[in-house]
Amino acid sequence: MSAGVLLALATVMAAGQAAGGPARAGAFAARIELTGPIGPASAEYVDNSLERANRDGATVVVLQMDTPGGLSDSMRSIIASILAAHQPVLGYVAPSGARAASAGTYILYACQVAAMAPATHLGAATPVSLGGASPLPIGNTPAPSGTAPTPSPDAETNKVLNDAIASIRSLAQLNGRNADWAEQAVRGAATLTADEALQKHVIDFVVGDTSTLLARADGRRVRVAGTDITLHSAGLPIRDYAPNWRTHLLDLVTHPTIAYLLLLAGMYGLVIEAFHPGVLLPGVAGAICLLVGLYALQLLPVNYAGLALMTLGIGLIVAETLAPSVGAIGIGGVIAFVIGSIMLFNRGVPGYAVNLGVIGGIAFSAMALLVLLLRLVRRSRRTRLFHGDTQMLLATGELMQAIGPDGEGWALIGGEQWRVRCESALPAGARVRVVGRDGLLLWVTPA
Fold first, then answer.
1. What's the CA gap between 361 and 350, in Å, rounded?
2. Which is it for strands 221-224 and 205-206: parallel, antiparallel or unpaired?
3. Predicted confidence (pLDDT) per residue in 293-340, tens digit
4. Which of 118, 120, 388, 431 is least surrounded by CB atoms within 10 angstroms?
5. Which residues form the NfeD integral membrane domain (predicted)?
6. CATH match of 388-446 with 2.40.50.140
7. Which H or E run contains 432?
């Protein structure tokens, strides 16, 4: 082989390596699966996975999504991580039947390449206020001709929605996608199927799997960290980055129902310890549960009026047990507790609400305990009160030994051993009744 041919071959190989082709050793695509509601655990998982992929030398990152939406703060954290990533991020709504709703739509717009599997959808990105009410209608109130428009009375709602519109439009402009539809998704909760999204230039591809996505994205020019690069993704092996134990634990703790139960366990544990000092276990376990629950609350969209009502309800129920009334205090406590539990979390955020069955079960248990307490109080009020000699004179017992006429012996009365005296002779085991007391000596007769 001539020197000229060898030189030409070496030049072609060097050019292929300089272009970053998929044939170079060690190149791979990192895949991060973002599933379920978007919360603090999801944001930490995506951020850590992007950092790991960068350290491992990933060529591209595939962010596979199936989410109903979630918390705004967590969504913005994920978007910031995507925009700061050193590798291009390919957003992919998959598998078939998945969705990128609400916060998922913003994240998909933030990715340099957006794709969806068949039979998936995205949209409905209207932000929801803490009270669960939709911020629509939005904008200024129509005014008569020739007069200035009157601002909407809900200025806070307008601010939240306009901020969301500006955010998603900026992401659309950054990656060259349909900004007008993005605004519709926020302002009017518009949604699109995969094919409709492709037609409206909301996404770049409709593909059936990750390998096809990498092949279709190959050769595209994208902007990463302010620099335009060409993707060389065809044929790259795929390496999955699964959540670690910390992510799973954080996801569990920040689940609204778990956080709610931790909060209750903590409160009741401390109450039990207060009524039974020295037991320690309820107090220690309660303190741990309460601290973990409070940690979860500061990461979740909490309505503090609901938390205050829950605390008031538990306080009233405890007060009913200490100073029994006709039930008004306890019933009021149960009502306050149920209303506070329903109000506690933002029910307008997908995936972030306490299961109503759990609330109903706890409320039913509280009512059952209250009814039982009232019955016991009622029964105790009907019971005749005895104390001192009056109670002792009605007691009966059993002789522990035989005694002679006008003799003394020992008897078991009320679970205690007493010295007794009887005018008549009685065998051991005979039943006797107390008729008098002289200090620690009881006078008895046959029962």
1. 23
2. unpaired
3. 888 877 777 778 888 888 888 888 778 777 766 667 778 888 888 888
4. 388
5. 257-373
6. yes
7. strand 431-438
